[in-house]
Design goal:
The complex is a heterodimer of chains A (371) and B (395).
Chain A lengths: L4 E6 L20 E2 L3 E2 H11 L4 E5 L5 H7 L13 E5 L15 H7 L1 H5 L5 E6 L2 E3 L3 H10 L4 E6 L10 E5 L5 E6 L7 E10 H13 L5 H9 L5 E5 L4 E3 L3 H9 L4 H7 L16 E3 L4 E3 L1 E3 L4 E2 L2 E3 L2 E2 L4 E2 L4 E3 L2 E2 L4 E2 L4 E3 L1 E3 L4 E2 L4 E3 L6 E3 L6
Parallel strand pairs in A: 1-4, 1-6, 4-5, 8-12, 14-17, 15-18, 16-19, 17-20, 18-21, 19-22, 20-23, 21-24, 22-25, 23-26, 24-27, 25-28
Antiparallel strand pairs in A: 2-3, 6-11, 7-13, 8-11, 9-10, 9-11
Chain B lengths: L1 E2 L20 E2 L3 E2 L2 H9 L4 E5 L4 H8 L13 E5 L15 H6 L2 H7 L3 E6 L2 E3 L3 H10 L4 E7 L9 E5 L5 E6 L8 E10 H13 L7 H11 L4 E6 L3 E3 L3 H10 L26 E3 L4 E3 L1 E3 L4 E2 L2 E3 L2 E2 L4 E2 L4 E3 L2 E2 L4 E2 L4 E3 L1 E3 L4 E2 L4 E2 L12 E3 L4 E2 L4 E2 L4 E2 L10
Parallel strand pairs in B: 1-4, 1-6, 4-5, 8-12, 14-17, 15-18, 17-20, 18-21, 19-22, 20-23, 21-24, 22-25, 23-26, 24-27, 25-28, 26-29, 27-30, 28-31
Antiparallel strand pairs in B: 2-3, 6-11, 7-13, 8-11, 9-10
Helix pairs in contact in B: 6-7
Classes of the chains: A alpha/beta (371), B alpha/beta (395).
Chain lengths: 371, 395
């Protein structure tokens, strides 16, 4: 069972609704959950399922992602054979121009890489989804049910329908219809994680390339529900897709709920990330902090409530932080007050400043800005 | 060459499973992280770690040296246990000097100009490059790092008596009437060719204890070798006893303690498991404390150091204590002036340790690893708990 799957992560995804948060990075390397990048979750899912070879398809704006994953050693993916492979555009067939028009287009771009995959099965997944998936169980179900494609979905839709796919599950338990980006949610929301054989994948890539089909959802799932045995795997644990600034904020605040954390941080399936060697977090004599998720390396001398603090954040004396997401290296100087704000990496808020957003419209401050 | 074979018997229950250098320290670290990080920060990339007592966890911890950037194709970190040799019986490391003697082959492989001898049970930040500069400038055979200690405490240390150039003319081990207050820190740089000669000579002397402080240093002084002192200024602590280990952990909480763990110019590296950020519950009250990834705090924590994955339940109180990875303090329990080792559980409403408030003859209570202190149980100050403690019954 081990090592029969190969992982492909679509790591080029970018969503303009994430505004400031994707100014210097694509969606997959957005910091999330106090110390992670979103892609850590899918990478960890794969590694925790025994997958040893993972390809990351990248296209534009991927410096931050490369910086983060490095050689892959923090995920035990720095290997002599296989391990982590970064798959940039133009490295295989040279005729492509502009951004990938869809997943099949991206896969066609790495056709020769796919040809050389050592495993019999492939997991396709987006790098923009924070979820702890039992990929091993999903793979077992795929084999047991003799599916052509297993598509992971959830009965608890959370995404913005305009950016999601929905499955209709028929009487026989098969997916009988696929709605792509409908105006309202209907049925099970796709998590866009698929398992299929390498052989089928290659024939689909060739078929789509020959027919100028770019979308996996439309060109494969929707078009072939009649021909292929496409089975759903309904996963009801927590899954967060980051689609907009307000959505990012809401998905972050949900982490303060212990049930959500229990589903995202499963002890058997640790979420791995880049190691930074931070010391523990220090709470000063006059600090107050509650209902917050705080990473290592912070120094907190002011007040923090209902917030998510990434590594190396400083909250100075008299500063008050409430309902905020403060990313790595943020400094809130003495007496400043922040409410419903998202500060990107290394933001500095000078003494006494007051910044206030709203829970439905949080204020986002871009990387390295000084307020 | 990092001497990490000490048993650490004065740490009692804390070293029943691990060697002293592998004892957790400062929320995120093991003691050995300090000398190892000092090495790489000082530009030393070839390090031998001499292990002997309970080496399994220490060896696993050091591994290929990757957390300290000591995974190299040339040099890097080498674990050096005692070993059997052909035609003769192998022996344990008889003393600090013998440990180096037994690894002469290792040193010859690299054939260094200078050898730095370190101890695996000191907490400090030091630029060994500066020590080496002093050694070279003085054209010494041996340079010993010394710390100015209060004169009253000098009788507890090995004391170096120096001339106006800080050259050492006499070494006194724990003198009753010290002539100076320059205490040896157990950190030496030797010119390798010289040290090699003295190690071989020392090994031939059957009466020798094969110890740097007792034998090698005095022998070199007697022979008139140039020995010089390097005055270290800054935080340094030998954490060889329960009290000093507790003290040193408490020191880490004070921003002006002399060691800034948050200083990115001189980071201390560690091998740590990936844990999610820690969570502060709605009623958590945490002041003057260090808290690490994977912790969940719902009660009160003051003046304490929490390692990763510690849980402090509702109504529980932790004061002036060190909770090592994975410990659980159940609801309503009170832990004060204590060290609780890995994965031990303090039951509901139990009371562990206490004292101060002016009291003089008190001590830190220690609960060894993987133990359970039952609900309502009472563990007195200074107690050393090495077995499960039954519950105290409902009061």
């Amino acid at each position: 069972m081990m090592n029969k799957m190969h992982g492909i992560i679509f790591s080029y995804l970018s969503n303009p609704d994430l505004r400031e948060l994707t100014q210097n990075r694509n969606t997959c390397s957005i910091p999330y959950g106090g110390r992670y990048r979103v892609i850590d979750f899918m990478l960890s899912n794969m590694v925790n399922a025994g997958i040893s070879d993972v390809g990351l398809i990248v296209h534009a704006n991927y410096q931050s992602l490369l910086d983060h994953v490095g050689s892959g050693k923090d995920w035990d993916l720095s290997r002599k054979h296989g391990g982590l492979r970064i798959l940039p555009p133009f490295s295989y067939s040279g005729k492509r121009e502009g951004l990938y028009r869809g997943r099949m287009d991206a896969l066609a771009g790495i056709r020769s890489y796919l040809q050389n995959i050592r495993q019999d099965y492939v997991v396709l997944a987006g790098g923009d989804l924070a979820v702890s998936l039992p990929l091993r169980d999903i793979f077992e179900a795929h084999i047991r049910n003799d599916a052509d494609i297993t598509a992971v979905c959830t009965g608890h839709p959370k995404g913005d329908p305009k950016g999601c796919d929905y499955f209709t599950i028929g009487a026989g338990g098969r997916i009988t219809d696929v709605s792509v980006h409908p105006p309202v949610a209907q049925g099970c929301e796709s998590l866009e994680v698929y398992i299929l054989s390498k052989e089928l994948l290659l024939s689909l890539v060739d078929h789509c390339a020959a027919h100028n089909i770019h979308s996996f959802s439309i060109g494969v799932l929707q078009a072939m529900v009649g021909q292929l045995k496409i089975l759903p795997y309904v996963f009801d644990g927590y899954a967060a897709r980051l689609q907009s600034v307000a959505g990012y904020f809401a998905r972050s605040m949900e982490l303060l709920d212990p049930t959500v954390r229990g589903q995202l941080f499963v002890p058997d399936r640790p979420v791995r990330t880049k190691d930074r060697s931070d010391p523990s977090t220090y709470y000063g004599p006059d600090s107050r902090s509650f209902n917050s998720l705080v990473a290592d390396g912070c120094v907190i001398e002011g007040e923090v409530e209902n917030s998510i603090l990434f590594r190396g954040v400083r909250v100075e004396k008299g500063a008050k932080v409430s309902g905020c997401v403060l990313m790595q290296g943020t400094t809130i100087q003495a007496g400043a007050v922040l409410k419903y704000a998202i500060t990107d990496k290394n933001v500095r808020v000078n003494p006494g400043r007051m910044l206030m957003g709203h829970s439905t419209y949080p204020l986002a401050i871009a990387k390295n800005e000084i307020v | 060459m990092l001497l990490a074979g000490g048993q650490g018997s004065r740490l009692h229950a804390l070293t029943s499973h691990v060697a002293k250098p592998a004892v957790p320290f400062g929320g995120k670290y093991r003691i050995i992280d300090f000398p190892l990080s000092n090495c790489i920060n000082s530009g030393i990339d070839t390090v031998g770690v001499l292990t002997q007592y309970r080496p399994m966890e220490l060896n696993a911890y050091i591994g290929n040296g990757e957390p300290w950037d000591l995974d190299r194709s040339y040099g890097g970190v080498h674990i050096l246990p005692p070993y059997m040799r052909e035609g003769e019986k192998g022996t344990w490391y008889k003393g600090t000097a013998n440990a180096i003697y037994q690894n002469i082959n290792f040193l010859d492989t690299y054939n260094p100009d200078y050898v730095l001898i370190l101890s695996g049970d000191h907490v400090y930040k030091m630029d060994y490059a500066d020590l080496l500069r002093r050694h070279k400038e003085a054209k010494a055979a041996c340079t010993i790092s010394v710390l100015e200690v209060p004169m009253a405490e000098a009788p507890r240390f090995g004391i170096m008596n120096v001339d106006e150039n800080d050259d050492i003319y006499e070494f006194e081990e724990k003198p009753k009437k010290p002539k100076s207050n320059l205490a040896s820190m157990g950190i030496y740089i030797f010119t390798w060719k010289k040290l090699r000669e003295y190690l071989i000579a020392d090994e031939e002397d059957e009466k020798s204890a094969n110890d740097f402080g007792k034998n090698i240093i005095p022998a070199m002084l007697d022979a008139g070798e140039k020995m010089t002192a390097y005055r270290f200024k800054g935080y340094w602590k030998d954490v060889g006893t329960i009290d000093s280990l507790w003290d040193a952990n408490m020191d880490m909480l004070s921003p002006d303690n002399g060691i800034d763990l948050y200083d990115s110019e001189w980071p201390i590296y560690a091998r740590t498991p990936t844990k999610p950020p820690h969570f502060m519950g709605k009623d958590a009250k945490v002041v003057h404390a260090m808290v690490t990834g994977g912790c969940e705090v719902y009660g009160t924590v003051e003046n304490s150091v929490l390692f990763h994955s510690v849980i402090v339940e509702e109504g529980a109180v932790v004061r002036y204590s060190i909770l090592m990875p994975g410990t659980v303090v159940k609801a309503g329990a009170v832990v004060e002036y204590s060290i609780v080792a890995e994965n031990s559980v303090i039951g509901e409403r139990a009371r562990v340790g206490a004292s101060p408030d002016g009291s003089e003859d008190w001590g830190v209570a220690v609960v060894a690893q993987n133990l359970t202190v039952g609900p309502d149980a009472v563990v007195s100050p200074k107690a050393m708990i090495t077995r499960n403690v039954k519950g105290g019954g409902v009061k």
